């Protein structure tokens, strides 16, 4: 990489490469060493490609044929192969030997021997650098084998002969699997996303990002690169023994022996991706729940401990990435600029700022004037937002309070973050209520929060914002409920929602420990005070998108005198 940049800089400036090399390297000897090392590594890569090509039966571009008149260049390091002024490879910090060619040849040979030993023993494990992960090619496990294709074809013929209703679907599935098998044999990189357009299979390659939906680094395990297998070498068994001769457990996974202290520190610091590395007890409980033959005795658990504690690091990161993409594609509050055609948010936008916007509700309003303050970026909670986002949120709150105060009404602002697993776009709901009801709301909310969820909760039931403001009293990595009746966040209550994200799989309610926080909690408290029908908060009807223009015009007319975005 350094040599390539050096050559590019020399071409751009129109000067000899040697002049740039003197600026980059301490001396010309070090520059010559880097050139020799690059040539050796290039020849080694070409030999690897030639071996792989000879095994598959296809000629490689890097391997010249026997009919080529120009012979293949081979690197031979001896005393006569290099001038006396050029010295061999040296270790970092080692001073050049005055011996000239003899010493340089010995140093070069030692460096080449080290490279050869590294090549023979395989590429060592290394910590992956935060970057975009290149999607891996399709493996034999993804595509069906010949025997499986024959079985599927037999099912198709049997279904056609018996005139079964699912014969056409089976035939389409068989054709798709045949194309996937052919693509796997040709070495094409295919991801699981395969779609049909016009009778043709369209391959979509997805790139797994470095960060998860909350900006944390993914942990996908070791960054070990497997070298291509030798054609005459037997394949090693990838399932090492987990017990010694006496029956004691010595390892759980194949990479336990290769785990270094640096890798353990990396797994501890990285926050995203593998849930089994963050909550080992929950992962083992999930493995036990999936085991249909599990027996609650120590002998069974001891015999199957390595299987029950198996890691699923890369799979967990891929599932999290797919869940994130699904949440972004189906979000009703985001701008889908990359969609074909581009789609606007499904809400009726009233006022648009640089980072947030004010809109009508997607579902039926609880009271007239019920609206939403929505961040433009897909945030899971408002605690993740920057100070600039919060400045705009406070501006919308102040304008709404002034607008409804003229009609002797107060405004309740609340936010409900039930779970981070679904990765839903967070919103702050603004509900206007009469002044007499507004005065009684704090006491009703406090009493309702004391009775919600389980009695044996680990967190404080009610967090009062008068002692500490909202952004300092709550944390962004736990589900929570927030209600406030001012724009500063100093008057209101907070509550930590427990049990929703503790389960390792969706739909697992084993760790909830009792009560469940209803998603319509705030609407129920307000609805009971104003005497609204229960269906308005339990099962509100979705508003037709054709009415968005009329709803936005009606609320925008009232909000226009207080609209800070046009000032």
Automatic annotation (TrEMBL):
Segments crossing the lipid bilayer: none
Polar residues compositional bias: what residue ranges?
53-66
Record domain Cwf19-like protein C-terminal: where: 455-565
Which Gene Ontology terms describe the biological processes this protein takes part in? mRNA splicing, via spliceosome
- Tell me the ranges covered by the Cwf19-like C-terminal domain, including all copies: 320-446
State a GO cellular component annotated for this protein. Answer: post-mRNA release spliceosomal complex
Alphabetical list of Pfam families matching this protein: CwfJ_C_1, CwfJ_C_2
Which family does the UniProt entry place this protein in?
Answer: Belongs to the CWF19 family.
Protein name, please? Cell cycle control protein cwf19
The upper taxonomy is: Eukaryota, Fungi, Dikarya, Basidiomycota, Agaricomycotina
